[in-house]
Design goal:
Strand content: 5-15%
CATH class of the largest domain: Alpha Beta
CATH architecture of the largest domain: 3-Layer(aba) Sandwich
CATH superfamily of the largest domain: Type I PLP-dependent aspartate aminotransferase-like (Major domain)
Order of helices and strands: HHEHHEHEHHEHEHEHHEHEHHHEEHEEH
Radius of gyration: 22 Å
Distance between the termini: 51 Å
Shape: globular
Helix content: 40-55%
Strand order of the largest sheet: 2-8-7-6-5-3-4
CATH topology of the largest domain: Aspartate Aminotransferase, domain 2
Largest sheet: 7 strands, mixed
Oligomer: single chain
Length: 388
Amino acid sequence: MKRRDFCRQSLLSALGIGAAVSTGTLAADLAQAGTPTKHQPANNSVHMMGEGLFLSPADKATAISALVAGDEFATDRYLIGGAVERLEIRMAELLGKEAAVFLPTGTLANHLAIRVLAGPRRVAIAEDDSHLVNDAGDCLQALSGIRLETVAGPADVAGIEAALKRLRQRRFAPEVGVISLESPSRRRFNAGLSREVLASIRDLARREGIAVHLDGARLPMQCAHQDWDLQRACKYCDTVYVSLYKLYNTTAGAIVAGDSGTVAEIRKLRGPFGAVMYQAWPVAGVALGFCDDYAADYRAGLACYEQVAERLVGSERLRIRPIENGTNANWLQVTGGDSERFVERLAERDVHILEPRPQWDGLLMMVNPTWARREPEDLVEAMMWAAG
C-alpha cells in the first residue's frame, strides 16, 4: 500500500469508515459512516462556515491515534523525516513546485517566504486589506527590516505600477523585492483574483525583476471551486503558502512551496525564528490523510450547494446573493424574518451558519465538504423550516 493511501485508510478506519462503504471522497465516506459516536463525526452535521470538515477534538484525537498503529508510520524529529518529510514531498507535488517546507503558522510562512525572496531589496508590495498587512503584527518590518508598500486590494497591474512609480520618484528610491498577493482574500469574504490578473501581475513582476509570493492559504479551495488546475495556478508565483488547518482538518500548520533553493533558505530560518518543533507528526499525518482528496471532497459539497441554490430560486423567504469574484462564500438573506432566530432554528436541525453581524448584508453562507453529508432536498427543507 502506498504511504499516502495508508494515511488516508488509517483516518477512515479511525472514524469508523470501512472500505466497504468508501466512495472515493472523504466527505461522502463520512456521510455513509453510520450512526455517530463520540469518536466519529456527527455525519449529518452541516457547517456552512469555513473550508474544512469541522472534525471534533475527539475525531482528531482518534485519527491521530490511528496514524501510529501501522508499520509504515514514522515520526519526525525536529521536523526532519517521518510524516513531516512525506507531507513536504507530497505538497510540493500537489502544488507543482520543486520543494516545500513545513512551518507551524501561516504568519511565519508568509514572513519567511517574503524575507528570502526579497534578499537585499527591502520593500515588499502588499494589498492593503491582506492578512500580511492587517494581522501579522508588522512582523516583516520589526523582524526582517522589510517595509510594506500597500496597494488597494484586490491588486491589479495598474495599482502595482502606480506603487512602483511612487517609490521611484523618491530621492533615495528603495528597491522592491517582492509583490505579495492574497487569493482568495479573507477580508473580501474569500473573493479571489482571476487567472488573468494573476498572469498579468506575474508578467509585470518578471519585467521588473521582482519576485511574487502568493498567500494562498485557501488556494486549493479556490481552484476546486473554479475548476482551476492547482499546479497551473501556482505557476503565477515564485512561492505559495497553503494552510493545513483551514483545509486539511489539522490543529495547526502551514506549507510554503517554491524552487528548491528558496525553500532551502526558508528551512534554515526555522531555527532562528523559533519554529523548530520537536515533533509535528500529529499535524503532518492528518494533513497527509486529507490533502489528496480535498478537491473531490470539496466538489461533492459544492454540487450539493448548487442544487440547494437552484431549489431556492424564486423563494420569498430566502435569497442567495453571490459575492463578486467569489468562491465558497455567498450572502443568504432572510426576507421578512429574524436572522438570529433563523440561525438558532437551523442549528436545531444540525445545520450551522455564522451568526449575523451588524456590518454584514445578510448571513455569510460558506460551502465546504460538510454539505455532502445531506441530500439537497433535506437542506432546503431545514432552511425553509428555520425561516418560518
